[in-house]
Amino acid sequence: MTDPVEIKRGDGPIVLGLPHTGTYVPGDIAAKLNDRGRELADTDWHIHTLYDGLLDGVTTVRATFHRYVIDANRDPEGVSLYPGQNTTTLVPLTDFDGENIWDVAPTEDDIAYRAATFHAPYHKALAAELERVRAKHGVAILYDCHSIRSNIPFLFDGTLPDFNIGTNLGATCDPMIETLTSEICSQAQGYSAVLNGRFKGGWTTRHYGRPEINQHAIQMELAQSNYLTAEEAPWSYDESRAAKLRTHLTEILKTLADLAPALRGKS
Ligand SMILES: N=CN[C@@H](CCC(=O)O)C(=O)O
């Protein structure tokens, strides 16, 4: 079986989480998806490529499995990310358009198996890397990397801003982290940005973001139109759009890495 998690260790204070860029679906689970589900439309396409090589010393923790197997950015206890609003669940029953993705719906036993086999190893690795980095630097900053189509009426009205920064209303990181990130995004020419808009940070950001122990987390949800040729299959990577976006992502990551020593011991 494909290893559920890929780790690249660096010696710096930043850890990139990549929960949704994996496309691995074991054959027995793929056989239960319907044709629509097998399109894997809700992948954070090419996000690992987009962030590759932007920051020296960065650590990356990447789930190789697809979010339709089990969603690494959802509470393993099954608690909804946005109670009362349309969202997708731990093992999603629908895609982001609210359409059924299964021919054979997952049972409670299926969910428990996938939680133990995929979700838990990913988070064991992510927690261990954050611990390692924090022991070395006295501080760790988790930057959770995401992307999504910019028009999804089932999830939100209108068109999503280009940079969607989530800190669960400031709870998951030191204020300087969200302030500096927001400033860079707002000043990026030709892009729009919002802090804690529709996307406030998923379970990963909320779970690991503990400023009181010098462990900070921030989520970046990018509109896919900024680095894909089109927000539809075949989800092709657009080198020239990506190159432009990468300059701003580099500035964010470098700024956070430079900030990290000042956060050590602040709390
Ligand atoms: N691309 C993925 N988006 C995240 C959004 C989480 C959130 O902030 O609500 C997800 O569904 O896990």
UniProtKB/TrEMBL annotation:
User: SUPFAM superfamilies, per this entry?
Assistant: Zn-dependent exopeptidases (SSF53187)
Report the Gene3D superfamilies cross-referenced here: Zn-dependent exopeptidases
- Give the matching InterPro entries: HutG_amidohyd (IPR010247), N-FG_amidohydro (IPR007709)
Determine the domain of life of the protein's source.
Answer: Bacteria
Signal peptide location: none
Q: Supply the alphabetized keyword list.
A: Hydrolase
One Pfam family it belongs to: FGase
Its EC number(s): 3.5.3.8
One MF term from GO for this chain?
formimidoylglutamase activity
Stated name of the protein: Formiminoglutamase
Which source organism? Thalassospira tepidiphila
